[in-house]
Amino acid sequence: MIRKIVFLIIFLWTPCLAVGEMVHDVYFRGKNHELDVYRIYGKEDGPTLMIMGGIQGNEPGGYLAADLYVDMALKKGNLIVVPRANFYSILVNKRGATGDMNRKFSSVSTHDPDSEVVKKIKEIMRQTDYFLNLHDGSGFYHPEYIDDMHNPRRYGQSIIVDTDKYITPTGKELDLGSLADRVIRQVNSSIKESEYRFRLNNHRTSAPDSIHKEQRRSATFYALTHLHKPAFACETSKSIKDFRKRVVFQTMVVNAFMKEIGIVPEQPSIYIEPPRMKYALISINNANPIAIYNNQRIFVTRGDFLEVVSVVSNYKRGVIANILGLGQLNDIGQPFRIHKPTTIEIKKDMFPCGKVHIDVTSKLNHTWLITDVNNKIYALSPDEVITVEKGATIELKDLVYMGSTSHGLNVNFKGFVPNWSNNTGEDRGYKIDTSKLLGRYATQIDKTTRRYRICAMRGNNRIVSFYIDIIDATK
Ligand SMILES: [Zn+2]
Fold first, then answer.
1. What is the 69 CA–ligand 1 centroid distance (Å)?
2. How many CB atoms within 10 Å of residue 58?
3. Distance 136 CA to ligand 1 centre (A)
């Protein structure tokens, strides 16, 4: 058998320990009939069980149960899991979107849209020692006729075999009935409701008087009579309305089969896959989040709020996003105002798994401070510096922010206080005498020049800055 290694499941990446292995193959990718096959190899050699679900799309108990085994790790033995044999029919929630796939195993027309999938499933069946097909069936199987929902023609809560004993061409006897009986005994010991206990349902499919001759075209019958492999169907009842309960019954049956066959799970399943970030969902100024992929850059305007809303990775738990220089170790779910470029580090526990770079642009579009200097009007751009002589009169006329004058921002000339008894921090509309400013708010640029800052504020947060350099020619 060719083992294509998609990824190794390695405990803490130390090569000295025995490792399990999971191989995922996708056939007919992107088609309605996409077929996903998962092969799980135990650390110790042992028998292989193929678990198939969803051959009929309206049976979620079966395919949801099968899907759970994809994440299983094994101490001993192997699993081949085909959770969605008929994905198309699952998506449309019908028994068969293009006819009943479980009646296509004796022969199928090459024009049939299911033919390629059936052919592939037959090929995969060759690689297993045991085959188990998971279904949700109608009513409750009962060997005698009780009523319409409990009788020999119903399927629910039964394990189906095509025959009790089967002799292979090499003379080996496959005792399907006994194995199913042992599984049923094991499962029933933990089912309280008598109606939900499983029964052995021998279809006697080959017998001339079989009431289930249609099963001669089924997957289990093919596995048994063409490949000579022990094959079973597990049927939970569609009359159990909560399909999650059916999933539980299905897993009880699969677990019992594994135990009887000698496949030993590892608990908890030890799959230590290297963590990989898929993308981070980032919201700027509370807008709808956008997906940013590993190593991408996001551009914000200085003062913007940035929030890492969530990180999508191959792990659900233990994943954090750390905006370097802001917040704490995990900054997911909190908005931060960004003033300078930084990096968001994505980690899963101690393992780095991605980075997003934050670039800050101070270029605010359509933003100006309209300023009157000695009766001359200037439009200052963000971070622009205008130079005036000490004693010049300045009036901050208005602020256009992102093209708008209705932005709710205050304009504060640091070092100018128009009204000592009520300093609102709003300095528009005053004639500001530049010889009477509070020097401690200024930065000394050189011997003769002091720089004052004018800030557009939202509450206590600085949104944009403009600068006035005041030259004192007497110095
Ligand atoms: Zn079915």
1. 19
2. 15
3. 5
CB atoms within 10 A of CB 387: 14
DSSP letter, residue 332:
B
What is the Å distance from ligand 1's center to 152 Cα? 16
- Which residues 6+ apart lie within 8 Å of 201 measured at CB? 141, 155, 158, 159, 160, 161, 235
Contact assessment for residue 121 and residue 82, using Cβ atoms and an 8 Å cutoff: yes
How far is it, in rounded angstroms, from Cα 151 to Cα 170? 36
Q: How far is the CA of 60 from the centre of ligand 1 (A)?
A: 10
Q: What is the pLDDT of residues 422-466, one digit of tens each?
A: 777 899 999 999 999 999 999 999 999 999 999 998 777 788 899
Angstrom distance (rounded) from CA 267 to CA 277: 26
- Domain 7-266 matching CATH 1.10.760.10: the answer reads no
Residues, beta carbon < 5 Å, ion ligand 1:
56, 59, 135
pTM above 0.85, yes or no: no
Residue 253 DSSP SS3: helix
Q: Give 31 Cα–ligand 1 centroid separation in angstroms.
A: 23
CA of 25 relative to ligand 1 center, distance in Å: 24
Lowest mean pLDDT among 1-5, 178-182, 362-366: 1-5
Tens of pLDDT, residue by residue over 1-36, are: 444 444 444 333 433 345 568 899 999 998 889 999
Count of Cβ atoms closer than 10 Å to residue 99 Cβ: 14
Ligand 1 center from residue 56 Cα (angstroms): 5
